[in-house]
Amino acid sequence: MASLRVMGSSALTSIACSCCACYHDTCTPYVTIVVRWYLDRAPTPLLPRQDNPADACLRWSHQSAVVNGTLYLYGGRAKRDSNQDSNTWNNNFLTVDLKTGWQISSPTMEHLPQPSGPPPTSNGFLWNSGNTLYLYGGEYSDNPEASPVPYSLWSYDIPSSTWKEHPKPRTVEGVPVERSAEGSGVNIPHLGRGLYFGGHVDRFTTPGWDISVFRVYLRSLLEFTFPGFSNPAVNDGRAAGEDGIWRNLTDDGVQDSAGFTERADGVLVYVPGYSEQGILLGLAGGTNKSYTQMNVIDVYDIAEQKWYKQATTGSIPEYRVNPCAAAVSAADGSSVQVHLFAGQKLLPYGSQEQYDDMWILSIPSFTWIQVDQKDQPVPPGRSGHTCTMWNSQMVVVGGYVGTELSCDSPGIYVFNTSSLKWNTNYAALKGGNELSQQISQEQDPSALHGSYGYTVPQAVQEVIGGNAMGSATVTAPAQTVTAGPFATGRPIIYTVTQGDGSVATETATPGAGPNGSGGSGRGGPNIAAIIAGVVAALFAILAGYLGFCAWVYRRQLALYKRHVAMSQRQSLGIAAPAVLGVGPGNLKGNDSPLGKSSLDATSATSSSNVNARGGAGRGVGGYHAVPTTKNTFAGGLDRVSTNSANGGGVNTARSSTDDLMEGQEPTFLGVLLSPRRSLKVINRD
Ligand SMILES: *[C@@H]1O[C@H](CO)[C@@H](O)[C@H](O)[C@H]1NC(C)=O
Ligand SMILES: *[C@@H]1O[C@H](CO)[C@@H](O)[C@H](O)[C@H]1NC(C)=O
Ligand SMILES: *[C@@H]1O[C@H](CO)[C@@H](O)[C@H](O)[C@H]1NC(C)=O
Ligand SMILES: *[C@@H]1O[C@H](CO)[C@@H](O)[C@H](O)[C@H]1NC(C)=O
Ligand SMILES: *[C@@H]1O[C@H](CO)[C@@H](O)[C@H](O)[C@H]1NC(C)=O
């Protein structure tokens, strides 16, 4: 595709034809890109392209929200043509219609009136209450440099089409709410709440920022209770007034800091059930020193306000920043499939690629399943895009596509989560409610939106059992759970009624929550005998397990001693780089639109190259990255034990307990608690 830039029109025609041939009778987005590119370059005067929102050459890092089948896109960055490298920040306000069907070459999009007031920002979040949109956070332009104004919440009332400013928001403690950017937002409409996790503050988010001060990554969890909704934790449970209620859960001290990481450029996904108010999953992202691995997932219990960690199984996606994710629920609720698409690969520095892979994280089994996209019209790799689930189709909008493609227009793609296929059209399914919930789940306000029509694909059934409606036989994480919602909770199980009126799955009632399902009714015949059997089996397993752990512990201890000896020898000879693991370093300025919006703190300074190369260099120390000679490994140990920053590729700051040995002598308890990790350590060696 890179050569397109210099091609003549005849070459374009032939490319277009071969593309068509590849994908049989339907024209794929690639063809559209080629043709549009050609039109853009035709020697006619520039067209007022913004007249049709589908015509932007590229759009990324925007904020989006879906309300009753209308997808709203606010701001972010966009280019009219591939040469444009400044003034990409905008406050355009667009819709994509998901209530009617369209071809991906010509999605039904509309420009809403340009807002006056809400600033042009990227990488913030758009919450919604079902009738109102709320714009939180985001960063201002770095080219030309814009000066942020103090944060105001802007709300958009959908029925009256009006924007409203809520200036100087403060938390319940009276502390001004900061404008964070590149954090991960999540909307929980039935609770009337939005959350925003992490992100960072710097001179493009915060007025009066001293240019010599590094970007600060936040470990905060910000909660906004929408106006008119009540939240038992604030205002004595009375409904919030017209400015809503802000709470910084970090400030309130209710966060368990051990499980609470700093993080930017990741995603948060809501999954109903398992706890009173459902859970959130934090995936991908990182900081300038460390990236979030996806072998262990951060799980947040909304009601308990606590973070936990859960190990996953299956083949695990590489760490990345700015992917998108959206979840879809089996009709009976027995599984939720989180789809994670694309994102930016961070290393090696200077050749960051945009992934185009698709992954499913199946909950509650916490198994990763890579989607087979062979022979499919997969959208070009991207990052900073958004995903919206509706009518069980995942609609991908925009994204930075690297330098290989000059334009990606309209840049909207549709993935059928039941067939696991990229489609050339979006289909507006008949039936379903305004929230596009599964019919079996319509009575449950906490049920996922957008799942209407979803059937569990064969590839997922092979892993979690059951059938297209659900009935998953894997009902708990494949890896051991020690605490938290997956230790005590359950999915919400719904009764699925077939077309002929028969019941497909018979279990508890909707909304039962963690302790409401099971248990009641249906007592087994000989409970005492069953319990005795189970207890005996448990003891046998425990004995075996302790023996195994003792063996692992002895191996690990021996290994540790060897590495300490080695790293002590090495630290005499090899100097550690001055700057460790800045990592992603999307530093190519104009070439790399994610630029400043990536993880690097110093992209605006000339030292950035050096730092970024440091990042690349340390990447090999990664837990999941390709290993690693013994030397690298020892280097890693050395680094940690001298208390410097973690290298690129290690787990998140606070999850550094997942690092290889952490530079601490292994303990038997540690092995007991996490035999798998310990096993990895000794296996790696
Ligand atoms: C969206 O649907 C919900 C539920 O039916 C309804 O309460 C709400 O008013 C609708 N919002 C808009 C903007 O149509
Ligand atoms: C929340 O509180 C923490 C700790 O005081 C602070 O660092 C962070 O900036 C606050 N977050 C926001 C978004 O205001
Ligand atoms: C990462 O950013 C922090 C500020 O957020 C800064 O103190 C630190 O030096 C940076 N680390 C590197 C390796 O650049
Ligand atoms: C998605 O795929 C499933 C399974 O092949 C099919 O039954 C369904 O009609 C498709 N949905 C759409 C919207 O194309
Ligand atoms: C479920 O748990 C909640 C809180 O732990 C408790 O108040 C409630 O009584 C429990 N319900 C049942 C049916 O056990």
UniProtKB/TrEMBL annotation:
<feature type="transmembrane region" description="Helical">
    <location>
        <begin position="527"/>
        <end position="553"/>
    </location>
</feature>
<dbReference type="Pfam" id="PF24681">
    <property type="entry name" value="Kelch_KLHDC2_KLHL20_DRC7"/>
</dbReference>
<keyword id="KW-1133">Transmembrane helix</keyword>
<keyword id="KW-0677">Repeat</keyword>
<feature type="signal peptide">
    <location>
        <begin position="1"/>
        <end position="21"/>
    </location>
</feature>
<feature type="region of interest" description="Disordered">
    <location>
        <begin position="591"/>
        <end position="616"/>
    </location>
</feature>
<protein>
    <recommendedName>
        <fullName>Kelch repeat-containing protein</fullName>
    </recommendedName>
</protein>
<keyword id="KW-0812">Transmembrane</keyword>
<keyword id="KW-0880">Kelch repeat</keyword>
<dbReference type="InterPro" id="IPR015915">
    <property type="entry name" value="Kelch-typ_b-propeller"/>
</dbReference>
<keyword id="KW-0472">Membrane</keyword>
<keyword id="KW-0732">Signal</keyword>
<feature type="compositionally biased region" description="Low complexity">
    <location>
        <begin position="597"/>
        <end position="613"/>
    </location>
</feature>
